[in-house]
Amino acid sequence: MRIAIAGGGTGGHISPAIAVAEAIWERKPDTIIDFIATPRPVDKRMYSEFGDTVHILNPPRIDRGISDIVLLPFRAVRAFMRARKLLQKLEPSVLFATGGYPCFFPVAAARSLGIPSIIHESNSIAGRANRQASRFADKVLTGFHSSASGFRKTTVYTGNPVRLSLGRYDREFAREKLNVPDGVPVVLFLGGSQGARAINDIALKAPEGIQVLLQCGNRDKERIKSELPGLQRIQVIDFTNDPALLYSAADIAVARSGAMTVAELTWFRIPAVYIPYPFAADNHQEWNAREIADKQGALIAFQDSTDADALWEIVNNLLEDTDEIGRMKNCLEETMPDNPAGIIAEFVMSAALEGS
């Protein structure tokens, strides 16, 4: 069985691609899986372990409007032909795509070659690229219930896949590995693979008595480190492909609400204060956060109306209310399907058997 998985450009598209691949290999270890990625640095870093099975395409963005294709017809035709040539070479039985502009051309090329394709929309508001790609796809899966309204065809809710390799560690073991002092609450700050200056600035104002784990993107790392001399209560940690230790050590999180961040925090049952990125397409990060907050598993704070003092007051109130934290964890446990990656893997493998 040979399967192609298209997903790249951001960690939010790469993580689910790897998660589904792991779930397929768990079921059928001899499956050949090829990844279709972009030349962006995040792709190179996150796909590094997969070597020659990673194939690079550099298509034009179509999620900023169809006018981009109208203005650049040569690039669009060239991207389609390169995707088609790659799929002809690989001869997969099915194409699975995790969404975003890098997936549109592989999905369209798969349709032209008679290769069945499945796309997964990870956000609560379906992206433009996925809405357009869905016209060529055989099946559309969604990570949030609300994203179904963005498609003109029937969708299947699966939840967002979390990598099997992100194992839950014992809390005390994780804290020891991260040199967290005994008895100190841990607040994890996450800005996504690109980092988030606004979230980093809030982390820098952490009060005494709290250990901050700040996962910091490359673009802001040097500035943050220059402002940290003597602040032992703040650990700056590079963006990592395996944040399991961070998740296992955290009491609560403060984070952007990209789809995979929400999925992973939900999977690890970490109550969160989400600060949606205000300029996300169609404001999808707010709606991602709302789907969890409406189930009482998270809180939402808005960047333009929440300063550092107000955010830390919210965090401190949560840390002092152990009953509320316990209730939020219970809500998170009821929110997410037991194994989204496995559910998606079954759909992909069934399509592969039908297409082979």
Report what the structure shows.
- Strands 3-2-1-4-5-6-7 form a 7-stranded parallel beta sheet, with helices on both faces. Strands 10-9-8-11-12-13 form a 6-stranded parallel beta sheet, sandwiched between helices.
- Helix 1 (11-27) crosses helix 15 (340-355) and helix 4 (73-90) packs across helix 5.
- It contains 15 helices and 13 strands.
- Helix 5 (101-113) links the parallel strand 4 and strand 5.
- By secondary structure, it is of the alpha/beta class.
- The model has no long low-confidence stretch (mean pLDDT 89).
- It has 2 domains: 2-159 and 338-355, Rossmann fold (3-Layer(aba) Sandwich); 171-335, Rossmann fold (3-Layer(aba) Sandwich).
SSE blueprint:
Elements: E1 2-6, H1 11-27, E2 32-37, H2 41-46, E3 54-56, H3 67-71, H4 73-90, E4 94-97, H5 101-113, E5 117-121, H6 128-133, E6 139-142, E7 155-157, H7 171-177, E8 186-190, H8 197-203, E9 211-216, H9 218-226, E10 234-238, H10 244-249, E11 252-255, H11 259-267, E12 272-274, H12 284-293, E13 298-300, H13 308-320, H14 322-335, H15 340-355
Parallel strand pairs: 1-2, 1-4, 2-3, 4-5, 5-6, 6-7, 8-9, 8-11, 9-10, 11-12, 12-13
Helix pairs in contact: 1-15, 4-5
